[in-house]
Design a protein that fits this description.
The structure holds 2 protein chains of 2 kinds.
Chain A lengths: L3 E4 L2 E4 L4 E8 L5 E7 L6 E7 L2 E5 L6 E7 L2 E7 L7 E8 L13 E2 L3 E5 L1
Parallel strand pairs in A: 2-11
Antiparallel strand pairs in A: 1-3, 3-8, 4-5, 4-9, 5-6, 7-8, 9-10, 9-11
Chain B lengths: L3 E4 L2 E5 L4 E7 L5 E7 L5 E6 L3 E5 L2 E6 L4 E6 L8 E8 L11 E2 L3 E6 L1
Parallel strand pairs in B: 2-11
Antiparallel strand pairs in B: 1-3, 3-8, 4-5, 4-9, 6-7, 7-8, 9-10, 9-11
The chains are: A mainly beta, B mainly beta.
Amino acid sequence: DTEVTQTPKHLVMGMTNKKSLKCEQHMGHRAMYWYKQKAKKPPELMFVYSYEKLSINESVPSRFSPECPNSSLLNLHLHALQPEDSALYLCASSHLGLAGGPTYNEQFFGPGTRLTVL
Amino acid sequence: GIQVEQSPPDLILQEGANSTLRCNFSDSVNNLQWFHQNPWGQLINLFYIPSGTKQNGRLSATTVATERYSLLYISSSQTTDSGVYFCAVDPRIIQGGSEKLVFGKGTKLTVNP
């Protein structure tokens, strides 16, 4: 099974709302990622979790708050977003290399959540 | 940081035609992936190909790591091949750690019937 699932598929929220995006994988991957993609642009990395710990934060504003409750789940909590945060939010997962050994990082992506902030 | 350039930016084909998409990268990479993003936004894995040649049906890919480029070949194109093709590279090797993918800007392919 090479499937990453994301919910919801679409989300419309106001600037004062609090909402969460969810991502799940059952491939035994220990790295999970959030990407943001604006229209006609490539995906841009936001956060990386490895072994359920935040390992990379690409200077993302604090109104985006990631959470990795276990090795299969990844959440992105949203609060006080701006209209310019409207985008496609993609989750991905991959294996991690063993310490001292070669890395293997084929990433698999979910279908995304299309977010509109009014 | 590493630069990833894809060409051409746009490509229009008639059904049945063949095409070659190119990805150049400015530094050594650990991993390279090709994706197809369909009109609904789903990124579909095509190839994981840090070096060498792979084939999958009508698609094949070649990466020449020493010369810092990768090519994606599409033969006998179909309308369902339409979408954006992204090349993405991982520029770092962190033993036991996580890595990041840096995406090119993509090639938008339109296949007309």
